Amino acid sequence: xxxxxxxxxxxxxxxxxxxxxxxxxxxxxxxxxxxxxxxxxxxxxxxxxxxxxxxxxxxxxxxxxxxxxxxxxxxxxxxxxxxxxxxxxxxxxxxxxxxxxxxxxxxxxxxxxxxxxxxxxxxxxxxxxxxxxxxxxxxxxxxxxxxxxxxxxxxxxxxxxxxxxxxxxxxxxxxxxxxxxxxxxxxxxxxxxxxxxxxxxxxxxxxxxxxxxxxxxxxxxxxxxxxxxxxxxxxxxxxxxxxxxxxxxxxxxxxxxxxxxxxxxxxxxxxxxxxxxxxxxxxxxxxxxxxxxxxxxxxxxxxxxxxxxxxxxxxxxxxxxxxxxxxxxxxxxxxxxxxxxxxxxxxxxxxxxxxxxxxxxxxxxxxxxxxxxxxxxxxxxxxxxxxxxxxxxxxxxxxxxxxxxxxxxxxxxxxxxxxxxxxxxxxxxxxxxxxxxxxxxxxxxxxxxxxxxxxxxxxxxxxxxxxxxxxxxxxxxxxxxxxxxxxxxxxxxxxxxxxxxxxxxxxxxxxxxxxxxxxxxxxxxxxxxxxxxxxxxxxxxxxxxxxxxxxxxxxxxxxxxxxxxxxxxxxxxxxxxxxxxxxxxxxxxxxxxxxxxxxxxxxxxxxxxxxxxxxxx
Length: 617
Prior knowledge:
Layout: E1 2-7, H1 18-28, E2 33-37, E3 46-49, H2 50-66, E4 74-78, H3 83-95, E5 98-102, H4 108-118, E6 122-125, H5 128-138, E7 146-149, E8 160-162, H6 163-173, H7 179-186, E9 194-199, E10 209-213, H8 214-225, E11 235-238, H9 245-256, E12 260-263, H10 270-277, E13 281-284, H11 286-297, H12 301-322, H13 329-349, E14 356-359, H14 366-375, E15 379-384, E16 391-394, E17 413-417, E18 421-425, E19 432-433, H15 437-443, E20 450-458, E21 464-469, E22 474-475, E23 481-482, H16 484-492, E24 497-503, E25 511-516, H17 518-527, H18 535-539, H19 542-555, E26 567-571, H20 590-596, H21 598-606, E27 613-616
Parallel strand pairs: 2-12, 4-5, 4-6, 6-7, 7-8, 11-12, 13-14, 14-15, 25-26, 26-27
Antiparallel strand pairs: 1-17, 2-3, 9-10, 10-19, 15-16, 17-18, 18-20, 20-21, 22-23, 24-25
Helix pairs in contact: 1-2, 2-3, 2-6, 4-5, 8-9, 12-13, 12-14
């Protein structure tokens, strides 16, 4: 039995389609720049206008028809973020073709599973590398989907055509099709028609195909727009994987609001690209904010002391402003000096024009959010899942409350079940899992409530606070419940800690695995005279063990005894997407971590007496 805690404005946006969204933008603002991209490794950005986008999308629809795809057909997109991703996506939308995004980081078996499960007829890929992967995956499934490669190598295998040839076929196919006929056909889509199947990156088991309708995404765009102020003067940079619904839905929102979307060179160049693109708004997962914070805190000597002083001043200022009070004259003067000496330089590092960031995908440490607010880079943290298209809640500039994910967006209802699980009902809730009716019935009850699997609570002002993933809650052998994410988030703000995972389910006590911030750790080691040849020898040092113990327990001061980890594992290698310990959106796969470091973790609980800190390479 669940109890109702909060409902937003119960009026849902009028049902609509993504085809309507697309046409409304390109027809009203033909000469406005829609997309910008880097055609090479340099700093030059190339613009694509709305009129050019419309013409390209018409050609993509023709290309899909030339390859035999009709309304209800399926096409996959396996590519990094780039204009062709959006053009292929909007082409599928206007053609009535269900598109199936595939993360560019997935392996051949993972790609083969999605191709086989979804039954796609065409796969758009970005490069020769992705082409070879898809050719290998294609050989493992029934049928033989056609492959279209954006950056085609000189020689193409059978069943593969270049993007250029695909567009040429499309242009030929649409000869004689008037603009009005194209428009009429695109608008044949119904709000309840499936628009896309997104395969959850998942932390366990085979991924499930989430079927999202046109109205699921359309309604989420409309609802989110009421919380996020955007104008045609704004610009953004798209770099989170478009295969994930978070960046994709927000890009729909940006596109429909007239915001210019620039595509980063790659995920590895985001920091440099911010300075080139100079966006006014951007979205990311907490990992980016953690990296920016850790980069600031890596300073040494007098610079570090200056930064620490400025952070102290900024914290006092932020607490006053967030509480709705006007800081006193002395605080304002000190803050102005801190801003000139430190904060302005941090803002410049992300282009100097950011009005606000949007954060989602995983919980953001309140300490990090407070830091960015004090710097003049407010982060609007939100919440949602792939199955909810994704946004259910998000903070606003005018009513930001750090530590929460804000109130529900319009048309969304939130319930907290008796066991603390968050339930959601609204127009953004998925149609269901593709060809998995049992899983759909488990996730959505007869009244339309979606069971998120997250634990949370709603405060007196109607804002949602996330505690943890239900399946991630650690239950110790003594029966104590421990929510690991808030504890991990506290540790991530420590200058000596880069990544952390807390463990201990069904064990006598909790433990943590830590990837240190090696630049800071190595700098400290050199100062105190520790000799080391590499990371392995550094982490073997008894002095390093003592330092890391002190850092961990100082960061976790005030926790209950059963919440405080007793053992610490220091890891030489970071958790990565490539080794399977992170999802494509950089969330930790706890089971994968537990399996990879099973010997080390078991050793924590095999002996009664040994060093607090243990090292593994």
